[in-house]
Each structure stands twice: as structure tokens, then as C-alpha cells.
Amino acid sequence: MSIAVITGASSGIGREFAFKLRDIAGVREFWFVARSVERMEKVRDELGLPCKIISADLATREGIEKYRTALEEEKPEIAYLVNAAGFGVFGSFDVLSEDTVTDMIDVNVKATVLITHMSVPYMKRGGRIIELGSGSCFTPLPHFNIYSSSKVFVLHYTKSLNYELKPYGIRATCFCPGWVDTAFLPKSLDAPGAYVPKKMKPLLNVSKVVEGCVKASIKGKAMYVTN
């Protein structure tokens, strides 16, 4: 049976993709990759479908290699890959620590590329890849610079990947939402010296925007933008 792999599946946008892939795309088996086993198990129980749970910190090479090992051992057929793992911290260059900066780049960029690169050999024609970009990737964003810049990479990477994969019948979609109503935003603002924007647009409904992205992915769209 073909599966859907979702990184960052324990909460927020990643969690929502599990339910929408079940309800819209008819997926009946999942692999979840995230740090919290307890939260992934909760999503699995709510989903009511078989889920392989891989506890991994994708900011580390060890965490990424856990996923490679699982692929090599089980050789699944991947119908959907959703790279929803990622994080951001508001703050200017003189506030953010080097560890915070490198972790953002490692999760948002390096892990996205490596997880995708490992997964494609296990995909067949009709396979779909969804990479989590951001509405912030379309303009420079002071005080959220590292995060938004990492998402510029994801956008360019995904659009080029979509072109490269056409001969194989696999399509890649970059999902670029605006501010979504999940725990991501409070966590991004909850850091020493974090810059707090004075105004933010009304938060988007996570169920609605993820549903739109799944439908765009099925159609083979290279990008799905909401704001």
C-alpha cells in the first residue's frame, strides 16, 4: 500500500495535512516524522489509520539518518511527501544566537532537501511532494530575516524540482501561506528579545488553507499561495 510521509506531523500545519490527505486524497497509511512521540501518537489515534512513528530531530544529521534507515528497511511506496517541519524566531541579527540561526537553516532548508532527496526514489508516477514555503518568501522581512530567507530557498528549490521531476510523472508544490492560526506564531514570538510586529493580518484558518494546498497538489500546481 502506498503511504504519505509527513514531517512536522505532531502539530499545526503538518497535523492538518494528515487529515486532509485522508479525507481528500484517500490516503490510508502514514509515516509521521517529528520529535514528540506522544503528540504523534495522539494524531494517529485521532486519524484512525495505521501510522509509523519516527521520532527524530531534523535539525541534526542523526535525526535525518533515522528516516533514511526506515526507508532502506521497509522500502515503502510513497504517494505523498509533505515537508512541514520547520520553525522560525522573530528577532534581529544582533539578538538571535548562532545556534538559533543554524537550527532554522538546518530544519527549514537542509532537512527539507535531504528528506526530499531520500524520498524520491521511493515514489512512482503520480507521486506528489509538498514543501512548506511561506508568504514571507516574497519580500525581505526585517526581524524575521533568517526564516523568510530560508523560505525563499524553499520556493526556488521546489519550483525547479517540479520541473526536474516532470519526466518521472512526479510533481512538487510549494505551499506559501500567510499567517496561519497555529501554535507556530506564538512560539516564534516567545524568545528573549524577540521583535513583536505591531500589526498582523487576521490569521488564516489552518483547515481551509491546507485543504486548498492538497487540491492544488493533486492538480500538479507548482505553487499554492494564500494570504
Give the helix level as a range of percent.
40-55%
Beta-strand percentage range: 15-25%
Structural class: alpha/beta
Secondary-structure element order, as H and E? EHEHEHEHEHEHHE
Largest sheet: spatial strand order: 3-2-1-4-5-6-7
The helix tally amounts to: 7
Average predicted local confidence, pLDDT: 93
> What separation lies between the terminal Cα atoms?
36 Å
In angstroms, what is the radius of gyration?
17 Å
Basic shape: globular
Flag low-confidence runs: none
**Number of extended strands:** 7
Largest sheet: 7 strands, parallel
Description:
- By secondary structure, the protein is an alpha/beta fold.
- Helices cover 44% and strands 19% of the residues.
- It has helices at residues 12-23, 37-47, 61-74, 98-119, 145-165, 184-189, 206-218, and strands at residues 2-7, 30-34, 51-55, 77-83, 123-132, 171-176, 223-225.
- A 7-stranded parallel β-sheet has the order 3-2-1-4-5-6-7, with helices on both faces.
- Strand 4, helix 4 (98-119) and strand 5 (123-132) form a beta-alpha-beta unit.
In brief:
The protein has 227 residues and is an alpha/beta fold. The chain has helices spanning 12-23, 37-47, 61-74, 98-119, 145-165, 184-189, 206-218, and strands at residues 2-7, 30-34, 51-55, 77-83, 123-132, 171-176, 223-225. Helix content is 44%, strand content 19%.
